[in-house]
Write a structure and sequence with these properties.
Oligomer: heterodimer
Largest sheet of chain B: none
CATH superfamily of chain B: ABC transporter involved in vitamin B12 uptake, BtuC
Largest sheet of chain A: none
CATH topology of chain B: ABC transporter involved in vitamin B12 uptake, BtuC
Number of strands of chain A: 0
Number of domains of chain B: 1
CATH superfamily of chain A: ABC transporter involved in vitamin B12 uptake, BtuC
CATH class of chain A: Mainly Alpha
Strand content of chain B: under 5%
Helix content of chain A: over 70%
Order of helices and strands of chain B: HHHHHHHHHHHHHH
Structural class of chain B: mainly alpha
Largest interface: A-B, 50 and 58 residues
Radius of gyration of chain B: 23 Å
Chain lengths: ~350, ~350
């Protein structure tokens, strides 16, 4: 009696054997969901367009179609959504495995705030005015902030606990945000460009920008996929992982670099989008168990599906304007975060 | 016979004396620190009022406050009464409120990083106030009312969701951080929806600024502090027990929940101050640890409040005159100075095994 209760409270999951077959099926289901999400992202919105028109534009036969501009913009938006969704979900899962912290998320661990401050500096101090210009700044800022938060949480000694890491993230976010607003209050133009970037949206980005950032997504994904087996070893804890013959420093550095590149590239492309990594990675972990070789594929498909659906819903609820994807993911993600904290699953990684 | 009865007495009394002295020394230190801080707060207000680009002589201050005309400095009266004095007083009052509220949070939740500006209650006040400012065009009393309502709603939500046994304090902090993240995206959404003028005004307010210092705002904040401070003082007695942990505190006769109820008062205090000045970064967060260092490791609500007042008034002064021709809001100064200090708090907190 008492043992079952303890098991529930510590969030011990059912034996992995019962779920070992569910991975491929889940990925197939999610692929169908992703297809639905892609189609609705292209066809739905403040002006719905018929699917036949979309097909003609995509096959290069779109000369006579009145909505051609809308369709092209939505296709670009959907591509951005797929990339950013996949990158953030994979980064979230890798970050959680790397830090053994189920609450890890770029929005919570200061990465977004670092990217924001870097973009503010770019706009206000160096006069950078285009999304292409923001890219490099956002990536550098995201990487530096990630390093800073981890260094801070580990500085005190005694291990990096989820609570300490989350608090360090919140504190660094607060600090960086006040530097950002210090720069912004003195310049109206800077603030005007920044407030629309800051909210996090996948709309309004051209395919040329996607091409610029694409190599970073590729490198980041490759790094995480290559090191995915090591994540399982790292999740066992430092001592066990070392016992299994892992080079901890190398494994950590490779995963961390991959995560920073993925987060930075996503933030550069779409602005800060929080909670997506947290939610998708947790859903995946819950569905297929703790093996990262199964979690990552689920994230790869589930992340884009969720982001595109959130974006499409955001476009439909506030017509003719829209609620940006970054807001939608926070609105959906925070209740899930709270649920995780309440169920005490913090100890389960 | 008599000798044996008397003999132990000096030894016993010297032991009692030693205990008494040992207990008094920290108490005396706290009293000393409080006096020094009160003097520092008064000095800071005087510096803010008298010095700066327009220097007012100390001898002129009393006639100005009495409303007597000054033939040799005709503009001084207006500048002091309409610009310098309101800013100094508002800064001092807001600093008191933020400092006390922050210390209350940190001690009760037993976490030096759990201050209202980190765990969402200040953001609750900000979000409500920004929505009220930009969409409802709120004026006068409605703005603080909205801020208090927002902060209380967030706190109740945090309490309801974070309640439970054992890790309740930690859970509440984590839930608060989650809610803070959601509220900041609400604020961002509102910012993209209004005109750039409104958004800019909201940004200045969100940074924390004393520019809106007017006598009605100061009066409102002063009344709120006078009403709330005695209640907070009552709760401060439970607060020291809460610091021992839930179990020990319950054993000593104060259920853990009671001290947490005192947080409601702290929330209201921080919210009223937030509605007047905006959330001034790091004041609530840093006042408690600074005061604790000064008091030799004992938490003191009043010392934290006074530290808050000194920090806000001096930071506002620095923001106005540190860089020529640039008027930085006070929140930028405290934020810029606060970030490195925050690192220090985080490190020492980790060393002490907290956080």
């Amino acid at each position: 009696m008492s043992t079952t209760r303890t098991a529930d409270r510590t969030g011990v999951t059912p034996p992995a054997a019962t779920r070992s077959g569910s991975g491929p099926v889940l990925v197939a289901v999610l692929l169908v969901l992703l297809l639905v999400a892609v189609l609705s992202s292209i066809t739905l919105g403040s002006k719905a367009v018929p699917f036949t028109d979309v097909a003609r534009v995509l096959t290069g036969d779109g000369d006579g179609i009145a909505d051609r501009g809308i369709i092209e913009a939505r296709v670009a938006r959907t591509v951005v959504g797929v990339l950013v969704g996949a990158a953030l979900a994979v980064a979230g899962a890798a970050m959680q495995g790397l830090t053994r912290n189920p609450l890890a998320d770029p929005g919570l661990l200061g990465v977004n705030a670092g990217a924001s401050l870097a973009v503010v500096v770019a706009i206000a101090v160096f006069g950078v005015g285009s999304l292409t210009g923001y890219v490099w700044w956002a990536m550098a800022g995201a990487g530096l902030a990630a390093v800073l938060v981890h260094a801070l949480a580990g500085l005190a000694g005694g291990g990096v606990t989820p609570l300490r890491l989350t608090l360090a993230g919140a504190a660094v976010t607060a600090g960086l945000a006040s530097w950002s607003s210090g720069l912004l209050v003195s310049s109206k133009q800077s603030f005007d460009s920044f407030r629309f970037w800051q909210v996090g949206t996948i709309g309004g980005r051209g395919l040329d920008l996607v091409v610029t950032v694409l190599p970073f997504f590729a490198v980041g994904l490759a790094l995480v996929l290559l090191t995915v087996r090591r994540l399982d070893a790292l999740a066992l804890g430092d001592d066990l992982a070392r016992g299994l013959g892992e080079n901890l420093v190398l494994a950590r550095a490779a995963v961390a670099l991959g995560v920073a590149v993925l987060c930075g590239a996503s933030t550069a492309l779409a602005g800060p989008i929080g909670f997506l990594g947290l939610v998708v990675a947790h859903g995946a972990r819950f569905a297929v168990g703790p093996d990262h070789r199964r979690i990552i594929p689920v994230c790869l498909v589930g992340g884009p599906a969720l982001l595109l659906l959130a974006d499409t819903v955001g476009r439909l609820v506030a017509q003719p304007s829209e609620v940006q994807a970054g807001i939608m993911t926070a609105v959906v993600g925070v209740p899930i975060f709270v649920l995780l904290v309440r169920r005490g699953r913090m100890a389960s990684l | 016979m008599t000798a044996t009865a008397v003999a132990p007495a000096p030894a016993a009394s010297s032991a009692v004396d030693r205990v008494r002295r040992a207990r008094r020394r920290p108490a005396r230190r706290v009293r000393l620190v409080l006096t020094a801080l009160a003097a520092a707060a008064c000095a800071a207000v005087l510096v803010r009022v008298l010095l700066g680009e327009y220097v007012v002589a100390l001898a002129d201050l009393v006639p100005i406050l009495r409303g007597e005309p000054l033939p040799n400095a005709p503009g001084a009266s207006f500048i002091v009464m309409e610009a310098k004095l309101p800013r100094a007083l508002l800064g001092a009052l807001a600093g008191l409120a933020f400092g006390a509220a922050g210390a209350m949070f940190q001690t009760t939740l037993r976490n030096p990083l759990a201050s209202p500006d980190i765990i969402g209650t200040s953001l609750g006040a900000s979000a409500a106030a920004v929505v009220a400012l930009t969409t409802l065009d709120a004026q006068g009393l409605w703005l603080p009312a909205a801020a208090v309502a927002g902060a209380l709603a967030v706190s109740l939500l945090m309490h309801a969701v974070g309640r439970g046994t054992g890790l309740a304090g930690q859970r509440m902090v984590l839930v608060g951080i989650g809610i803070a993240a959601m509220l900041s995206s609400v604020i961002q959404l509102v910012m993209t929806r209004t005109s750039i003028q409104d958004a800019q005004a909201a940004l200045v307010w969100l940074t924390g600024s004393l520019a809106r210092a007017t006598w009605p705002v100061i009066g409102l904040l002063a009344v709120a502090l006078v009403v709330l401070a005695p209640v907070l003082a009552l709760c401060a007695r439970w607060m020291r027990l809460a610091e021992l942990g839930d179990d020990l505190s319950t054993t000593l006769g104060v259920p853990a929940g009671r001290a947490r109820r005192g947080l409601v008062v702290a929330v209201a205090m921080a919210a009223v101050a937030t509605s007047a000045t905006g959330p001034i970064a790091f004041v609530a967060f840093l006042s408690g640890p600074i005061a604790r260092q000064l008091c030799g490791g004992r938490p003191s609500l009043w010392a934290a409040a006074l530290v808050g007042a000194v920090v806000v008034v001096l930071s506002d002064f620095a923001g106005d005159y540190l860089i020529p021709d640039v008027n930085l809001p006070v929140g930028v100064v405290t934020g810029a100075l606060g970030a490195p200090l925050m690192l220090a708090v985080l490190v020492t907190a980790g060393r002490a095994g907290k956080a």
